[in-house]
Amino acid sequence: xxxxxxxxxxxxxxxxxxxxxxxxxxxxxxxxxxxxxxxxxxxxxxxxxxxxxxxxxxxxxxxxxxxxxxxxxxxxxxxxxxxxxxxxxxxxxxxxxxxxxxxxxxxxxxxxxxxxxxxxxxxxxxxxxxxxxxxxxxxxxxxxxxxxxxxxxxxxxxxxxxxxxxxxxxxxxxxxxxxxxxxxxxxxxxxxxxxxxxxxxxxxxxxxxxxxxxxxxxxxxxxxxxxxxxxxxxxxxxxxxxxxxxxxxxxxxxxxxxxxxxxxxxxxxxxxxxxxxxxxxxxxxxxxxxxxxxxxxxxxxxxxxxxxxxxxxxxxxxxxxxxxxxxxxxxxxxxxxxxxxxxxxxxxxxxxxxxxxxxxxxxxxxxxxx
Length: 370
Hints:
This protein is mainly beta. It has two domains: 3-162, Distorted Sandwich (Deoxyuridine 5'-Triphosphate Nucleotidohydrolase, Chain A), CATH 2.70.40.10; 169-339, Distorted Sandwich (Deoxyuridine 5'-Triphosphate Nucleotidohydrolase, Chain A), CATH 2.70.40. 9% of the residues lie in helices and 36% in strands. It has five helices and 29 strands. It has helices at 7-15, 58-65, 106-109, 169-178, 237-240; strands spanning 3-4, 19-21, 35-37, 39-46, 68-71, 76-78, 83-88, 90-93, 99-104, 113-119, 127-128, 133-134, 136-142, 147-149, 156-162, 182-183, 197-198, 204-208, 215-220, 227-228, 241-245, 251-254, 260-268, 274-280, 288-289, 295-296, 311-319, 324-327, 331-339. The strands form seven sheets. Strands 16, 19, 21, 23, 25 and 27 form a six-stranded antiparallel β-sheet that branches. The chain is globular and about 55 Å long. 44% of the residues are buried. The model has no long low-confidence stretch (mean pLDDT 91).
């Protein structure tokens, strides 16, 4: 069956030995249409970012280029702007026709912690080929803060698919007519005629920046204290982020290389039979990375039966090449919907511990006291 695999299919991959782990895979790792991946003990400091060529193993690169090994049996600090390769506890033996792609978890994206998966013989980040069998390594680059990690921590997630199917423009419009995908504050749907569509591979809904709220966003501060990924809700947000109050003229000046947290004006809804990937808008909208995590499970902003009228998306923004001026309602990202091959047995925010199901505004990571 075409499409992204739901939770029960991921459970079957695990039961069939297609996904195995050096540690037991915990039930909470299995999300409605994704699997949280975890760190093993084995890590290396690297002199820079790199990827394998065709036919080359990641361990070949480590033997040739690594600076020193790290044992994450005990908590270790990863220093900002340094590159690390960490073996993931999970390894794949995927069936023919089943592939996977990976990205940051939302919580790690919101602390500016960049992660990218490397697979043997695959010169692409975060892409695991169909039928892949072998180890998986995670390239980790802390960008704003030092981070403290240990074996068992989860920094990223993977989505499995059999012939991934992004919705076309006509399919998106049909779905929108059946269940609005974008909502306004106050619980009114954004009219389909007002929803913006952007061409490309499939079609996507465009979402815009919300600067018209009391706290419009946050910008990271320099801090020598690492963010400890085991301390959920314990860090003082004021030590790591400075709030950005609502600009009087709806305009903000973003500094090159700084890290910002914002949110969207629109509230997005993901019906149960679908998942969503948030993509950067495009380079003509400005040279900045609009997100790290970018994956929304079925049920996000929807609930069990559509009772939730959307949830704003949180954006992690970093101007790369130049300083940047952004304005209220500026398009910043696009939402690509994809079909699951069957309805998942669990939904985001419905009977699960979901940290961001009720988020409003530029919500910081779960590691901070709110």
